[in-house]
Amino acid sequence: MKLKFLGTGTSQGVPVIGCSCEVCTSSNPKDSRLRSSVMVTTDEDKKILIDCGPDFRQQMLTHKEDHVDIALLTHEHNDHVIGLDDMRPLIFKTGKDIPLYCSSRVADEVKNRFPYAFADEKYPGAPAFELHEIENKPFTVVDTEITPIEVIHFKIPVFGYKFKKLAYITDAGFISEAEKDKLKGLDILILNCIRKSDPHPAHFILPDVIKLFEELKPEKLFLTHISHHLGLHDVEDKLLPSGMHLAYDGLEIIF
């Protein structure tokens, strides 16, 4: 299987509008971060998208992806769902609704934000989705077993997802001991890290991630959902403990 980072930035992306810091003005492509999303390609070449934010169209074109078989949503914040309307060309091409897998709360929010996609009589050109409500237990889709990982983002539960010995978690500020058990023995753990210091009410910062790396002991840990406050990629990546890396847009991982 393969995971490709379509975006590794926070809700504002990097560069941030109006910011002239060294990260936002960097000429290194690794310092430009679209909103967080990944594409998982199965051994049977099925495409599993995790989150569909405002940069979805640009991400698909930039990374030469041309279809999505299913989409998993972590939670309902706009930087993770508002690009769903841009799935229309994929829907028109196949003539099939895009299956969305998410919690019941997120499903309700998707219906509220895209009511025209679920209308009994849709206008021509409207997107069409097939909603599947999932709970915090493993499920199988496109011949792939997926295990949700429930984490807390400020006060709301958010799903991360585990495939084989890889887990992808974004927008987390707390992981319970029960959910940590699902993250032990991993080859690859992908975890959000918004900045180096200054505790955040909804996101892990670097000391939190280092502590989790030492506790969970994955073979490798990649940081994502990164803001411009974390620093320049080529500088900060070298300062991380051995086995930890900054992800960047376009990075591919085989697992």
Structure description:
InterPro entries: Metallo-B-lactamas, RibonucZ/Hydroxyglut_hydro. Residues 34-225 form the Metallo-beta-lactamase domain. This is Phosphoribosyl 1,2-cyclic phosphate phosphodiesterase. The structure is a single chain. The protein is α/β, with parallel strands linked by helices and 255 residues long. It has a single domain, classed as 4-Layer Sandwich (Metallo-beta-lactamase, Chain A). Helices cover 20% and strands 27% of the residues. The chain has a seven-stranded mixed beta sheet. The chain has a seven-stranded mixed beta sheet with strand order 7-8-9-10-11-12-13. α6 (206-216) links the parallel β11 (188-192) and β12. The protein is globular and about 55 Å long.
Biggest sheet: strand arrangement: 6-5-4-3-2-1-14
The radius of gyration computed from the alpha-carbon positions, rounded to a whole number of angstroms, is 18 Å
Mean pLDDT: 98
What fraction, in percent, of the residue positions are helical? Answer: 10-25%
Protein name: Phosphoribosyl 1,2-cyclic phosphate phosphodiesterase
InterPro entries: Metallo-B-lactamas (IPR001279), RibonucZ/Hydroxyglut_hydro (IPR036866)
Organism: Chryseobacterium gambrini
Characteristic key phrases:
Metallo-beta-lactamase, Chain A; alpha/beta; 7 helices; 255 residues; 7-stranded mixed sheet
Give a short synopsis of this structure.
The protein is α/β, with parallel strands linked by helices and 255 residues long. It has helices at residues 56-62, 78-81, 88-94, 104-113, 177-180, 206-216, 233-239, and strands at 2-7, 37-41, 47-50, 70-72, 98-102, 129-133, 139-141, 144-153, 156-163, 166-169, 188-192, 220-224, 244-246, 252-254.
